[in-house]
Amino acid sequence: MFSKFKGLFSSFFSTDIGIDLGTANCLVYLKDHGIVLREPSVVAIKEDTKRVLAVGIEAQKMLGRTPGNIMAIRPMKSGVIADFDVTEAMLSYFINKVCPKHVWRNYAKPRVVIAVPGDITEVEKRAVEDAAKASGAGEVVLVEEPMAAAIGVGLPVSEPAGSMIVDIGGGTCEVAIISLAGIVHSRSVRSAGDAMDACIVSHMRRVYNLLIGERTAEEIKMTIGSAFPTGQEMTMEVRGRDIVAGLPKTMTISSEEIRDSLTEPVSNIVEAVRSTLGNCEPELAADLVDRGIVLSGGSSLLRGLDKLIAQETGLPVTLADDPLSAVAEGTGQVMSQLDILLKNKRD
Question: Are 97 and 56 in contact (CB under 8 A)?
Fold first, then answer.
């Protein structure tokens, strides 16, 4: 009798939370409130004691600037957990920030929907679930990122017709063709924003003997990076450390050379789209001629990427209205079916 009462009590008072647990950023969707938190997936810890010093924006400011006894790290790699303890601390911080502990918390832990990469393994799924529960979550439901992104951008995923989503985040690019509320064909490649940043770092080191950090590389990508000629080339001053002299140095670089340096990761994304289309049934392919491809995720904002994919596929390509929020918005909409999903999970 008590367990039945506790279950009803928990269902009534529990808070539903959707989390886009990204490699670069973490977004949290709170039921009836929308997206309430958007912070970098970075944690600063003291190396000897492993004590967490800062999470999110404050920790990101420390990247590349910490003394020897402090580490600012990103616990998510390629969309999956690379450091369990640090991920747990990060999730706990985010959950408690949007859902503070209160008198009901012991009885009604928040129910959580978490978006994960489409090719995640069972072991990796369990790691995400365990980290969420250790962080204070109650019941946990995992949803594939491309499905969440498709729902978040408003694609008619439940219709008997093909819709195609390309979600390009920090660690992975998720490509999926969806019909009748299921993923028919999908492809996940570890070539996204982080790979682009690494190529820019490598280019600056190889061509100019200039050592730059990942934050500088990301700034270059966002400011003058492109995947397709835009018709207006730009330049940018970049500061770093001269590898030969060991002194601070400033260089001026062009958008054209940065575009060339991004050829490999961009080509991997385009190839993932093409190979997914190559496995597509004729009927679904016919649907995509009219509906086209929708891009989401932070790295889809790379200038000219939509034009390049359109040129390589011959299909219309549309950038989502708010590509950064697509997955988080999708987890929020999945919450409307949360009771059904949890029942199916238990059964």
Answer: no
pTM over 0.90: no
Q: Which residues pair with 38 in a beta bridge?
A: 27
Place of tokens 């204070």: 136
* Count of beta carbons in the 10 Å neighbourhood of residue 141: 21
Q: Kindly report the CA angle at 203 between 200 and 209, in degrees rounded to 5? A: 125
| Domain 193-262, classified CATH 3.90.640.10, yes or no | yes
* CATH topology (fold) of 159-191+264-321: Nucleotidyltransferase; domain 5 (3.30.420)
- How far is CA 87 from its chain centroid? 15
Q: At the top level of CATH, which class does the domain 2-138 belong to?
A: alpha beta
Q: Hey, what amino acid is at 34?
A: G
Q: Are 308 and 274 in contact (CB under 8 A)?
A: no
In whole angstroms, what is the distance from residue 276 CA to residue 274 CA? 5
Q: What is the CA radius of gyration of the chain?
A: 21
Per-residue pLDDT tens for 129-178?
999 998 888 889 999 999 999 999 999 999 999 999 999 999 999 999 99
